[in-house]
Write a structure and sequence with these properties.
Length: about 230
């Protein structure tokens, strides 16, 4: 179960991207559109190159780096690139090896970045109370993030993390989707649900959904598309 309603708008990975190593030995790229990018096993150097590219890029809107065993130190490098990026709207780093350090780094991104609307930190089980509290604190000043996914992350969120989220939502009026694990105490689930269902926040959600347009698909040369191993 999740603490809010609505389907997540997941996007596929994207085309080979300038400045990002395309290493046959450790990297797989997908190619449904030029505005989205997905990497499998890019390695530390690949993420560093990607972070540098993000600092100056003006076209990429969706980035998927899930299931890559990414550690906190690599996430911190990625976060530095995101601080200067002004176009990326969706970041998916689900199912990595991220803990509170990475959550804090992405919280710093949310304090300064004005383009990110969706952040997926789900299935990073080492994210705990400290990391969630940092994200909640960032939400107090952030006015652009619409969706935050913490499902199966923050198993040790505890009272501190949940109280921080409730306090943040009392100030933040633009987050419309917050996904949490099903086992959180009923008291906090009720408080969070009530805040997310506030009429003013629902108006923000409706406006965001009205503005959502399907990604423009740019055909790729099939010969250049790299498929996941095993397909």
């Amino acid at each position: 179960g999740r603490s809010t309603q609505g389907q997540r708008n997941t996007q596929g990975a994207g085309a080979s991207y300038p400045g990002v190593p395309n290493n046959e030995e450790n990297s797989t790229l997908y190619c449904p559109s030029q505005s989205s990018l997905g990497l499998t096993n890019p390695g530390a150097e690949g993420v560093r190159a990607l972070a540098d590219a993000l600092k100056v890029n003006s076209t990429l809107t969706s980035l998927s780096l899930g299931y890559n065993s990414m550690s906190d130190d690599i996430a911190v490098v990625l976060a530095e690139g995101l601080k200067l990026n002004t176009t990326l709207a969706s970041l998916d780093v689900r199912a990595n090896m991220l803990s509170d350090g990475a959550a804090m780094a992405f919280a710093d991104v949310l304090r300064v970045n004005t383009s990110l609307t969706s952040l997926d930190l789900s299935h990073n089980r080492a994210i705990g109370a400290e990391g969630v509290a940092a994200l909640a604190d960032a939400l107090r000043s952030n006015s652009t993030l619409l969706e935050l996914d913490l499902v199966s992350s923050g198993q040790a969120i505890g009272t501190k993390g949940l109280q921080a989220l409730v306090a943040a939502l009392e100030i933040n009026s633009t987050l419309v989707r917050l996904f949490l694990a099903a086992h959180i105490p009923r008291k906090y689930r009720a408080q969070i649900t009530k805040l997310l269902e506030d009429p003013a926040r629902l108006a923000v959600r409706q406006a965001a959904e009205a503005d959502t347009k399907p990604a423009v698909e740019i055909p790729c040369d099939p010969a250049q598309v790299k498929r996941p191993r095993g397909e």
